[in-house]
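Hi C.,

You asked whether I'd gotten around to modeling the 734-residue construct. I have! Everything is below, sequence then structure, no commentary in between.
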Amino acid sequence: MTTRNYARDEKSLLDDYRLARWGRGDSPDEVAKAVGRALDAYDGESTAMQRARTLAIVLERSQIDINPNTPFSSKLNLGCNYDGQFVSSFAYERIFAARMGKKVKELFPRLSEKREQSRKMGISIPSLDYGHICPDWRSLMKLGLKGLLDRAAESEAALRSKNELTAEREDFFRALKMCYEAIFGYMDRLIEAGKEKGVDDFVECIKNLKQSPPATLYEAMELSLLFLEIVEIGVERARSLGNIDELYYPFYKKALDDGTLTRESAKELFGFYLAKIYSAKRYANQPLCIGGSDENGRTRVSDMTYLFVETYCEMNITNPKIHVCCTSDTPEKLYDMLFRAIRNKVSSIVFISDEQIMRAYEKIGIGRDLSRDYIPIGCYEPVIQGREDARICGSWINLAKGVEFAIHGGYDAMTGELFGDRTNPEPETFDEFMEIVKRHLAAFVDFTKKAIEELYEKSALIYATPLYSSTFSHCVKTGTDMFAGGAEIRNASIKVFAVGTAVDSILAVKKYVYDKKELSLRNFGKILKDDWRGAESLRTRIQNDAPKWGCGDEEADRIAKDLFGYMAKLIVGTPAKFGGVYRMGCDSVDMSRIYAVGTGASADGRKAGTPLTRNLRPENGMERNGVTGFIRSVCGVDFTDFCDGAPIDVLLHPSAVEGDKGIEMMKALLKVYFANGGSAFQGNVFDPSVLEEAQRHPEDYRDLQVRVCGWNEYFVNLDKTVQDDFIARAKGME
């Protein structure tokens, strides 16, 4: 057997997928053609059976690679490109996405037209969000693959005995069984390939996992990685690996107690595990979480947590990203380690308040007996593991667009089209103007909800996910696919964003139209339609005005609170036709750029088509009272309205966080934010001159990480416009 040494092979292991030597199977193009033919041949079958048949094709025919230099030896060739920052989409993902798009247009022609208009205008893009999933990792670790299949067989028999096994349910179980047969066949392929490479421990691991739940730390981690790769063969993205402190610690402790592992060998195993995730260049960074509390309310942080974090920080990688679930008894030692990492530019880390998440769940009618089992998935969004389908990215709503429509009498500034109703282009008072802003925002919410519910009604005709569903006990108990409403708790989430752009624009309208009366709203609208041409002096004055969001200004903060409160009344906890309720979030990811393309010039001085403000951030250069002013502003927000998450992005200069006092200051910021009800906290420590130097000489700064929104990237890999955005914000904080 090959003797492994992580330190020796680290460079190649971190590039494992790109350096793969694919064999034992057909090329991705050949497999993709076979998948396409199968979908055509079985077009009359349910989407669940189509998914099962195509999964079988991919697992039976795709090329594999076995790397003997890592215990996590296997890789599956899914037709991805690993040359960029993130892996390209899978060949089969593209096939399913195209067919789903076609099906949506066929089933919902009118909705598709309205949705396209909304997308072009940068208002809202409602969807069913099949892409953000989180398997019930607890069930997988407890039952194993065979146990999950046996549980499904028992449920099928129980439904049959009660004469409740409908044709749809029978179809669900048939698809589920076909998925697991395909997985077991794939595992046989891995066993044979592993034997040829002489990786006896890997072969033994796969043999055990085929028959039983994991019995060792190695088997638990291998099962996690194996299932992760397989469950995503389609459009699904498994946006968390679960709480590793809960899932892996029992195996870790047992191994240390019986002497089969030492801390040193466990650390090396973590290195191999993290390298596997990093080398796969998983899109937007693969999330996993640490911390949280156990069934007795005590922190889950342990010696294993510190060892894992230590390994991660030493590797200086961006992928995976770590969600830190913070409790009242989270140890100071862990905060010290993590903030030192962030100060050293290892910043793919976000802190999330357990208390705040549970309060937000209470607001939508879910008690702590359930919400304490939440897992952060995606960027910041919590879901109750094994119970909740939250469709965390149902849509984003652009707050700045409501202001734009109010200024232009209901017309879109860039297309001149109406989306909803005409409104008074010359309201007499500022209060009337704000009522019009809210009227447009209400119309956006109404459109978004109706679209989500219309899509949801026929979601199982568009796509199904039998393998993912098999991990949820309620789906299996009822014989219902997750995307057909099989989860015990069925919610949907709508995010609002661009608060900085919206609030600063409202302040400009109030000052120059209603307070100073320098120009009419109609004339202001004409200036914005001309994208500020000929009005540079006014634009400069507005940009230099003192009241801005994110500075601790009372007037700006009051407007933000009013906007968020209004949106909460329209969204938070309101019933949905599919049986659950709506949740609200406030993060933007890259929608600040995507929606901006259709958003005209803003009254705050922003030019047409340029990025909107991200997350809860102010406009670049407007944090004139530094991070303390920013914290004051966001602490006025009611975070219990944001069950879907609402992060703040803190940017600090290296000189502010030097030495032990600097770490204490960073911890104090976090604790003040959480004490005032804050939800999620992430940060960067930058000297703008270093960023400028990295932009000029990228070859010298290959390892410089930046927290982009809900993920990290290496600064030198960013587009220049995004780099400029970071530099501008960093300079604004000086």
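If it helps when you're writing up: DSSP finds 30 helices and 18 strands in the chain.

Thanks,
B.
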